[in-house]
Amino acid sequence: MRIQLGWFDQRLAERVAAIADGGLVPAVPRDAATVMVLRPAPGQPADAVEVLMLRRPAAMAFAPGAYVFPGGSVDSADGDPRIAWSGPDPAEFGERLGCSPGCARALVCAAVRETFEEAGVLLAGKPDGSPVVPGSWWDEDRAALSSGAITFAELLSRHGLVLLAGLLTPWARWITPEAEPRRFDARFFAAALPPGQRAVGHHAEADLTAWVRPEAALGAARAGSMTLLPPTATTLNEFAARGGVAQILGSRRTITPVMPRLVVEDGQPWLLIPDEVGYPL
User: Fold this and answer.
1) Is the pLDDT of residue 4 over 80?
2) pTM for this structure?
3) Which residues contact 116 (CB under 8 A, 6 or more apart)?
4) What is the mean pLDDT of residues 227-251?
5) What is the pLDDT of residues 143-192, one digit of tens each?
6) Gap between the Cα atoms of 240 and 231, Å rounded
7) Neighbours of 152 (CB within 10 A)
8) How far apart are CA 173 and CA 164, in angstroms?
């Protein structure tokens, strides 16, 4: 699959050429995690779903105005062994995500932390597995976590909570093209919106928070009224073909890394994505 790029500058073109000639070593991708939060579509058949999407502010340097899922980079605190954990062993996640148990644990912790910071959805609960219910502390502690005033381990500890790893279903893995100066090795997870919670975007990360039907998002992208990055569009297409929330979360997918390539041919930039990925746009 070849995608003609609407954005491309001379500096990136030079990086493509330098890497192809062996004169530049690609940046090492940073581990990152993304969560697709799902809910049944209100007033629709039982197999209809909506996915939570955040629109990136226009002032952002990368992909301004694009609709994305909550997520971000793994940071050092995500590997803190004091983060209370309940559910499948990190080794099981590691086998599916293609990394060590320690890396898998940090990825899951980053996924849950980032989803709370960016969308106000907390995939945690009591040690008996019951989901957390938002309380008076919710907004204040979310802000403190986002600012770095408290760590994720401290947030869980002060409220007697544990990360509920079983709420996350590993879904996909996308790696930024080698020519990009900032690269990520992003693992994608699916999760249902916990009962009693609602999504509220963080103003620094999103200027719009929306629940969107996958089919509607793809239709809007084809019409030019919504910007979707390739991993986002591909995932939405997979959801559209899968069925309801239970069917999606019950999937046990074989996760193969996808790394698109940037090339320049006759002065025209292209993004190359493997045909088997099923990119829908």
Assistant:
1) no
2) 0.94
3) 122, 123, 142, 145
4) 93
5) 999 999 999 999 999 999 999 999 999 999 999 999 888 999 999 999 99
6) 14
7) 24
8) 21
The DSSP symbol for 25 reads P
Distance CA 181, CA 87 (A): 36
123 alpha-carbon distance from chain centroid: 14
Pull the structure tokens for residue 190.
Answer: 């699916």
Domains in the chain, please, with CATH?
A: 2-277 (3.90.79.10)
| DSSP assignment of 78-94 | GG-TTS-EESS-HHHHH
Using CA atoms, how far residue 37 sits from 50, 53, 112, 128, 210, in Å, is 8, 8, 11, 22, 11
- What is the tens place of the pLDDT at every residue in 186-200? 999 999 999 999 999
Closest among 32, 21, 65, 18 to 207, alpha carbons compared: 65
